[in-house]
Amino acid sequence: MHKESRIRDPLIDGNKTFHDITVEVAYPVEGKANKYWWTLFGLSVILMLWGFGCIAYTIGTGIGVWGLNKTINWAWDITNFVWWIGIGHAGTLISAVLLLFRQKWRMAINRSAEAMTIFGVIQAGLFPLIHMGRPWLAYWVFPIPNQYGSLWVNFNSPLLWDVFAISTYLTVSTVFWYIGLIPDFAMIRDRVNEKINPLKKKLYSLLSFGWSGRAKHWQRFEEVSLVLAGLATPLVFSVHSIVSMDFATSVIPGWHTTIFPPYFVLGALFSGFAMVETLLIIVRKVVNMEAYITIKHIEYMNVIILFTGSMVGIAYITELFMAWYSGVEFEQYAFLNRATGPYWWAYASMMTCNVVIPQLYWIYKIRTNIIATFVLSIFVNIGMWFERFVIIVTSLHRDFLPSSWTMFSPTFVDIGIFLGTIGFFFVLFLMYARTFPVVAQAEMKTILKSSGSEFKKIDNEQ
Amino acid sequence: MSNKKTYWKGVAQLENKEFANEIASNEFSEHLPVNDFLKEKKTLEESSTSRRDFLKFMGFTTAAATLAACETPVVKSVPYLIKPDEIVPGVPNFYATTIYDGRDYASVLVKTREGRPIKIEANQSSTSARSQATILSFYDSNRAKEPMFGGKSISWSKLDKQIKQKLSEVKDKKIVLLTTSVISETTLDLIKKLSSKYSNFEHIMYDSVAYDALLDANLESFGLRVAPKYHFDKSDVIVSFGADFLGNWLSQDYSKDYVNGRNPKNGKMSRHFQIETNMSLSGANADKRIQIKPSEQSYLISNLYRALIGTDQIDERLKGVYQNLKKSKSSIVVTDSQRKDVQLIVNAINHELGNYKKTININNPCFLKKGNTNDLNSLIEDMNRGNVQVLITSGVNPIYNLERSKDFRSGLEKVDTFISCSLYNDETSSLADYLCPLHHNLESWGDANPSLNTYSLMQPTIASLFNTRQLETNLLSWADLNKDFHKYLKNYWINKGIDWNKALHDGYFKFNQSNKAANYRKSNLRNFEKVEVNRLELCLYEKIGLGDGTLANNPWLHELPDPITRTTWDNYVAISASTAREYGLMNKTVANGALNGSLVNLKADDVELKNLPVIIQPGQAKGTIGIALGYGRKRSGKVGDNVGFNAFPLISKKYVDIELAEGEHEFACIQLHHTMMGRDMVKETNLDKYIKNPSSGNYREKYYTYKGKLPSDQVSLYEEHDLETGHFWNLSIDLTSCTGCAECVIACQAENNIPVVGKEEMRKSRDMHWMRIDRYYSSEMTKENAKKQDISSVKMYAQMEEPSEDPEVVFQPVMCQHCNHAPCENVCPVAATTHSNEGLNQMTYNRCIGTRYCANNCPYKVRRFNWFLYSENDQFDYHMNDDLGKMVLNPDVVVRSRGVIEKCSMCIQKIQALKLEAKKKGETIKDEDAQTVCSSACSTNSIVFGDVTNKESEVYKLRNDDRAYDLLDHLNVRPSVFYQTKVRNKQNA
Predict the structure, then answer these.
(1) How many domains does chain A have?
(2) Nearest CA to B966 among A400, A329, A325?
(3) Cα dist. B282→A112, A202, B319, B938 in Å?
(4) Which domains does chain B have, with CATH numbers?
(5) Distance from first CA to last CA of chain B, Å, rounded?
(6) Which of B235, B201, B242, B211 is closest to B392 using CA atoms?
(7) DSSP states of B212-257 as a string?
């Protein structure tokens, strides 16, 4: 009997050849930007400048221009910080963890996901800096040998751990990303006509580090990628665990929770994948990458969102259970107040966006629908912002002594800075989309089905 | 051989001496043709400036002008040419003196540094928040600075001449001197001398808040127009009908006596009944508070008297009062009634109970209140009839604080010469022909006689800041007794046999006065019957902070949260929740937590006040409203103008009508939650339970460990600090004796250079006070009630947020608790807050980068962040931005810059000074010397500071007391500050 094993669906649609891939990936870099790009870019630049203005105003006048007070000393600043850091997570997971697990489908999205990571971490890094009362002294958080006497940093402080975690994360992510880019830069370099565009040639030659495509280069490339993937994998778990310790090691009810590290990591992946989807659904349309970033990719990511979303939901419920089970009245009140107090709407938004809405992905039609996925990913982004807001603000605003209880409302500066980082993020991403190959074309070529499916096709035709 | 060696500077000198000499004598080696050039007019005119020259000139002048404009900041620090003997830079000097502004009296010690007074401390009497804050008013740049005539400045000699002329011109009409109560014997003596010199001279005294009824009743009963000495410490039962004796009543501080009579350690406490309308400080401290309308007061007092003499049934509400009075051996009954016939009944009650022999000493009267409203009213009539030719006022502001200020103003127009002696060019002084600016107390000489046989002296602590004079100097020169008042004062007392130097050093002395009261004379007492009033009633009061508004330009007092409402920078209409509902009035919190309240239009006879803010006050009697006096100044200075509204026009109004007005008022209230939410921050017990078990009410949770159940302080993962060697500073706060008077808050603000942030920032919950006094009301909903009635937690907590309409009140001072396992210390990334080996949590401002993580992780929320630059910033136009206001700053404490966290340091500067002093002397620190400013300011001694390694110290004993507990004990942060449970005495009350 003739037994034919199922041939997997190709990861690249449309019977592409190697050359097609090269041309299509290089197209946005070589061609002229369309009006959508310019509109989006213009908007982002305006937002970014507005945000920078608000930052300058804050640094010039004092943190008092934000809505904080004696009870709530962190609000939008740290909410945004954790949100951006979380967004970054999916990139590392896709490029490192999925590489180790040999998930080939990651190749279409890892470049952009990792770009998103880096740009997200840049936004995140802004907040710890500008939320300081005296940001010009920010370098004091680094253990720099100094002449101030015996001054040294406090290694007990989770904020210091943050400094190390984030700077390591940013460095490793950037290096990993860059290594992957080298063959692709070389591809663009080779396609640039030196006579027409000598500067571009020079630039891409520099960026591609003298890549020649020799077998030895490919071998080293593979090795370094594997080593870096190994290095980056623990970072996926460590960075957000450490961020969560800012809260978990404190004494404030609602913060003081041992569940935070896994809860934060899962939440970060959850929000990270949502953001990857938001971005890629736009990118694949704008730069014609539908053949590379397919419905299959989106479905895979939606499954991850469904999984992490459910895990986050379990974490929320565990928190509530532990508050009740602990018998500590402060703990109990903190969670009761979250759900039913003056910020119930934030808690409700968080629950709806993060727990209820992703459950729609059980439905096949929804998880393979581009529009639905886009809308849902926006919900998740919003929900995850609210999660951080709920954790930070509702825990602080009613802690131990009712005499200090108060509320928080943002000023135009708080809002301006947040919008500014979104603008800044898109400015970076849009510039990246015009100058960098947005799909790792060299890797893509390794998964191009050039044999089996072709023969299958011929078979079918006969 | 003589030495003829010469040294030459160069070969030129050796070879050609003349030439060398010529060169040496010329400053410029080349001939400069300046003279030749300028000599000839013609050549000068012919010459022209070339482009190159022009550029050179331009370059030079621009550079020169630029350089000249770059002034190096001049830091004025002038060393002493001849150093005064008593001043050592860095070492404070203390002067004993007296503060008396016509209302508040205090015998004080003034701390001066390098010649400038910076802090007021209690001496023979206790101080209050206001007397502590006077130091800032002294450096008020809005004070009247020079004598003026008709709005133009004038010299003192001219002014004296003109005034003497005016005074001697008086023939038939009157000269009137209008002052507040004068308690200085020499001043009264001088006034007498002045009155004998000029014809038709009259001296009239009035108090902004009158005590005529009390004084007149005593005149009738005892022949003396005085207030007696009340011994609250000796009284078993205290019954006060509206008299806020722990607050502003009689301007006397009775809290020390009151608390002395309420020490649970003695197994005996007085039982305090407060029958009142507004929630006052006394009411908040009472064991039993009974809410009444002002219209019921006379009837209830009358009914109590009749019941006591057995001619009537006691009113249901006063049953407890009656029974307790009947049973008790000693008691005090007081009232704030403005009716003489009611005060007479109170005198009769006290006489009936035998209190004049035990607890009320009419033979040791207090002289602080002497004002006479009748005299004042006849003055206004006289003025309006044109009978007054010269009016001299001193220290009063009748245009602001008289109910009949309109009549006063119209009368002023008929006065020929109006001379105002005042600290400020205020509402009244601005109408004066002559403005004689007064010295502040801290610049003046003087004496005071606050009560029988007790005298205190006033001496200048600094040369006068402005071209001002004290009243006495004015009186001397107008009476043609051109003597220095200092000499006059000194001779006056030396002639009476007082040891001047000792008295001046001590600040007070005893001198026997003959002032015997007659025996009690019974008067015909009026019977008041029960009346039903169905109108909204008004009850005015003075705030603990601002009082009658004399110190309205003092930002510390405006920013001091009212102990009851905890609202700053405002006065308002206080109303009970149910009455508010009737009128459709509400209070709510907006998105940032700040409090908003409805506005009302108020009408009382002819007085109409528009858009008054409403605050819902638990404990306010139903059908009544309370309004604070002292606000709404128009010419007090940059800080006090137009804060709140003026309620003096309402002073005799009893009934008012209010209606809801459009809009909302934005309050700056810093405590937005009023109940303890079922938590036990303030642990409480009752005297009978305390006697049975001293640790009653002080329950400590125990936790399961592998060693069995243990209290939190025996379970720890942390390494312990070594607190055995050296000092270990602790602070005990007794919640039984804390009356919530807020004096410590102002003392702390003065000592630690705490900035004033203003109403907008206070509204955003950004108060900077290092210590606060939390106030909690009881709620109808408790955990027990919820369990009994089977109410869900969600509903229970929602209802717990609502304070009861008849609440019990507790006060809890909270400052940095100086945890020995401090949550703030762990989390600072740059180690800017660290632990000292003396048990203190220390803040290093210049290391702080302002992440505010410590403030988030502080369970007590006592850390304060500098949201803006509060000093040298015109956005915060209070006192730290002007050269004069800055003088009040304590040079021992850093003024914090923006972006850093600050908090209570337990007055580390004082500890350090103390240690150095002891080290120099080679002694150990004495327990009584170890003080923080809050502990030394506290007149009831409820704050005790000291070293617990000293087993003899008071604080060590308190640490081991059965009542001692740590706030939020379960967190196991091991604070160095601890509390003593509150004990009330409310059984059978």
Answers:
(1) 1
(2) A400
(3) 70, 85, 20, 17
(4) 11-69 (no CATH), 148-209+371-510 (3.40.50.740), 220-366 (3.40.228.10), 536-669 (2.40.40.20), 684-984 (3.30.70.20)
(5) 118
(6) B201
(7) HHHHHHHHHHHS--SEEEE-GGG-SEEEEES--TTTTGGG---HHH
Quickly tell me which residue has 């990139």 as its tokens: A91
User: What's the average model confidence in pLDDT over B65-75?
Assistant: 76
pLDDT digits (tens, 9 = 90+) for A219-265: 999 899 889 888 888 888 888 899 999 999 999 999 999 999 999 99
Whether A318 is covered by a domain: the verdict is: yes
Chain B residues 780-799 with a CB less than 8 Å from chain A: 793-794, 797-798
pLDDT per residue as tens digits for the range B343-399 = 999 999 999 898 888 899 888 888 888 899 999 999 999 999 988 899 999 989 999
CA–CA distance, B181 with B449 (Å, rounded to integer): 11
Q: How far apart are CA A252 and CA A398, in angstroms?
A: 10
Helix axes A370-389, A260-286, angle to 10 degrees: 140
Contacts of residue B839, Cβ cutoff 8 Å, sequence gap at least 6? B721, B723, B727, B728, B729, B730, B818, B820, B976
Cβ-based contacts of B775 with chain A (< 8 Å)? 403
Whether B847 contacts chain A with CB within 8 A = yes
Domain contains A374 = yes
Per-residue buried b or exposed e for B161-194, using 16+ beta carbons within 10 Å of the residue's own CB: ebbbebbeebeebbbbbbbbbbbbbbbbebbeeb
Report residue B731 as tokens.
């602070």
B 643-672 near A (Cβ less than 8 A): 671-672
Residue A104: partners with Cβ closer than 8 Å, 6 or more residues away: A11, A447
Residues of A in contact with B853 (CB under 8 A): 73-74, 157, 159, 246
Residue B435, SS3? strand
Per-residue pLDDT band for A200 (boundaries 50, 70, 90) equals confident
Strands B536-541 and B655-666, bridge-based pairing: antiparallel
Mean pLDDT of the residues in chain B: 89
Q: How far is CA B270 from CA A10, A434, B892, B986, B989, in A?
A: 92, 84, 42, 10, 11
- C-beta separation of B541 from B244 below 8 A: yes
Residue among A70, A74, A141 minimizing CB distance to B767: A70
DSSP for B289-303 reads: EEE--HHHHHHHHHH
Domain that holds residue A45: 26-447
Q: Are A272 and A309 in contact (CB under 8 A)?
A: no
Distances (CA, A) of B737 to B221, B455, B566, B760, B812: 34, 28, 20, 33, 11
Nearest to B343 by CA among B218, B524, B518, B210: B218
The answer to whether B868 contacts chain A (CB < 8 Å) is: yes
Q: How far is CA B405 from CA B173, B205, B390, B626, in A?
A: 22, 16, 18, 22
**What tokens were used for B741?**
């008077």
Q: What is the CATH number of the domain that holds A326?
A: 1.20.1630.10
Does a structural domain hold residue A8? no
| Helix, strand, or coil (residue B879) | coil
> Residue B53: enclosing H or E segment and its boundaries?
helix B51-69
- Whether the CB-CB separation of B410 and B384 falls below 8 Å is answered with yes
Sign, CA torsion A231/A233/A239/A241: negative
What is residue A461's predicted lDDT score, i.e. its pLDDT?
Answer: 63
Q: Which of B853, B854, B903 to mutate to test the interface with A (most CBs of A within 10 A)?
A: B853
Structural domain includes residue A20: no
